[in-house]
Amino acid sequence: MPVSIVISDLITFAIQFVFFLAYLLFFYLRGSAVGLTTWAFALPLLLVLMAGLGLGFGIIISSLTTKYRDLQYLVSFGVGLWMYATPVIYPVSSIPEKWRWVANVNPVTPIIETFRKGFLGAGDASVI
Fold first, then answer.
1. Cβ(92)–Cβ(109) under 8 Å?
2. I need a surface site. Which of 62, 97, 106, 121 has the fewest CB within 10 A?
3. In this structure, which long-range contacts are made by residues 29-37, counting pairs with CB atoms below 8 Å and at least 24 apart in sequence?
């Protein structure tokens, strides 16, 4: 089950990525300060890391929810919290130094920051 979800999500990502590139080209042609950097070549590695992370968590959680049925409610709540702890909309540099350790503990933070550095030219790829 987790493998089929990862493959389905990769197909969805490919479709959404085409739209992202179209918007990126649109804003670039309008004069915005966005552009590809050499970090954009890390996209296949970033996809493998995200797919592996999702697959690993999916296998662990699916095996635990077979025994503990109520865990699915805790997982859905935890994923919502994890979404806010992942710097997708805000950069890591905007987090106060006192709380930056929370973002650095998150395994998705370096992937998001590298993606931001590669495709938007802004971000901190050194958090890897």
1. yes
2. 97
3. 33/121, 34/119, 34/120, 34/121, 35/121, 36/118, 36/119, 36/121, 37/117, 37/118, 37/119, 37/121
**Amino acid making up residue 42:** A
Amino acid at 56: G
Give residue 19's pLDDT.
95
Question: Which residue stretches of the chain have pLDDT < 50?
Answer: none
From residue 114, alpha-carbon distances to 26, 39, 62, 119 in Å are 22, 7, 29, 9
105: exposed, middle or buried (C-beta count within 10 Å: 0-12, 13-18, 19+)?
A: exposed
Record the pTM: 0.77
Q: What is the pLDDT of residues 19-35, one digit of tens each?
A: 999 998 898 888 887 77
